[in-house]
UniProtKB/TrEMBL annotation:
The entry's keywords: Signal
Annotated segments matching region Disordered: 4-45
GO molecular function (one): oxidoreductase activity, acting on NAD(P)H
Organism: Blautia pseudococcoides
Listed name of the protein: Flavodoxin
Gene3D superfamilies attached to this UniProt entry: 3.40.50.360
Cross-referenced PANTHER family: EXPORTED PROTEIN-RELATED, FLAVODOXIN-LIKE DOMAIN-CONTAINING PROTEIN
Keyword Metal-binding: no
Superkingdom to which the source organism belongs: Bacteria
Length: 208
């Protein structure tokens, strides 16, 4: 369901990640301001279904989408906060030695998370949102997936990006969990309205 110019093999740190309709670095940040949307209709009729919307967002784009989902479902929101915050130098994908480049070149990197989800066992459904970094999920999302027991839960991955699709980022995360039901992932735009985001959420049939 995700569109975009995905190149699963383009992992060279000297190569700039693709950006939508542009090759400029600016385009990768062109969704950083999510508009607010006043419509806030709870769509989750099933009171017994407990939903958590967990997300990592370095520059706020994924956070906007996560809030639309949490508002729309009356769900709990949890931000994955890095123990060591990412500076803009850390996020420089043009720098081979930047923290993000180094982490993404190492599939085993597991940046520490500050804090934790209280009572993860109470949730039936966990949305997990993240920005695409080098065609993949940031390694701190791997830290998150390995920190909890997701067995018996439904997991719904979603991402934002400068244009890349969700690619194999979700299936890579799925490998870090066991006995969870992973639904297809979805790439969303930071500029998507709450209604647009909820159209996708409602199509998942979570309350069935
Ligand atoms: C280190 C780094 C690598 C990125 N790699 C990609 C990429 O491979 N493909 C892409 O479309 N966008 C890439 N982006 C852009 C982000 O995915 C995009 O700006 C995202 O919406 C940011 O979400 P956030 O504000 O929640 O952190 C990258 C951004 C950073 C900082």
């Amino acid at each position: 369901a995700c569109s975009g110019n995905t190149d699963q093999n383009g992992q060279s740190s000297t190569e700039q990640p693709p950006a939508e309709n542009s090759s400029s670095a600016d385009a990768m940040n062109n969704e950083s301001s999510a508009p607010t949307d006043s419509s806030n209709t709870p769509d989750n009729e099933d009171e017994s279904l407990k939903v958590l919307v967990a997300y990592f967002s370095a520059t706020g784009t994924t956070e906007g989408v996560a809030k639309h989902i949490a508002n729309g479902l009356n769900a709990e929101l949890y931000e994955i906060v890095p123990e060591q915050p990412y500076s803009s130098a850390d996020l420089d994908w043009n720098d081979n030695d930047s923290r993000s480049t180094i982490e993404m070149n190492d599939p085993n990197a597991r940046p520490d998370i500050s804090g934790s989800v209280e009572n993860m066992e109470q949730y039936d459904v966990v949305f997990i949102g993240y920005p695409i970094w080098w065609y993949d999920a940031p390694r701190i999302v791997s830290t998150f997936m390995e920190s909890y027991d997701f067995s018996g839960k439904t997991i719904v991955p979603f991402c934002t990006s400068g244009g890349s699709g969700i690619g194999s980022s979700a299936s890579n995360l799925e490998k870090l969990t066991s006995n969870a039901e992973w639904l297809d992932g979805q790439r969303l735009n930071g500029s998507d309205s709450q209604d647009t985001v909820m159209e996708w959420v409602n199509s998942l049939g979570l309350d069935k």
